[in-house]
Amino acid sequence: MQGTPFISVEGPIGVGKTSLAKEIAQAFQFEILKEIVDENPFLGKFYKNINEWSFQTEMFFLCNRYKQLEDIQKGFLSYKKPVVADYHIMKNMIFAEQTLKDEQYKKYVQIFHILTADMPAPNIIIYLNASLDTLLKRIKMRGREIERNIDPHYLARLSDDYEKAMTAFEQNNPDVTILRYDGDEIDFVQNKQHLNRILSEVQESMLKRSM
């Protein structure tokens, strides 16, 4: 997939990943890959009792994301079709490290590395983050029943973990283009100029990578 754009949009819950991925797909006529969320039968229970349901929740997400990436490998990338996804598989490790018990985490890491060893990886990452107040406001606005019981402390820790993970990822993957945006300053849903700025910078990044 050398020159084929594979963009992932990442960031904590409620930051606007899917909304931005849809805008990019529409603007550039890319295939869109959306993570399965509502179909996870454990997620509602997870938000009510993280300790009890974390392993089942994370394993469901891992297996489904693996299947999606496997389909990309067999289909989209075989025909050099550009793809934009509203997640990066690395997010599994961010969530797992925060929620799983030690023994569960060790097993999970082994499975993660086996499944993702040969999977296609994005060459451009758009990283969105925002303050806890903004994340909570956006989660409330989208009104998903399954997210009503999200613990603000959990969300705050998750946001911090994303910052650390993205900083480490950027240092260890200099060949991947990373575009960062502050969700407190940029509202690409309500402000067309903000959206156009992001789309312009995405296009510029793709052109640079194609040279």
From TrEMBL:
GO cellular component, one term: cytoplasm
Its EC number(s): 2.7.1.113
Keyword Cell wall biogenesis/degradation belongs to the record: no
UniProt-annotated catalytic positions: 86
Deoxynucleoside kinase domain residues: 7-204
PANTHER family (UniProt xref): DEOXYGUANOSINE KINASE, DEOXYNUCLEOSIDE KINASE
Identification of the protein by name: Deoxyguanosine kinase
Organism, as annotated: Priestia aryabhattai
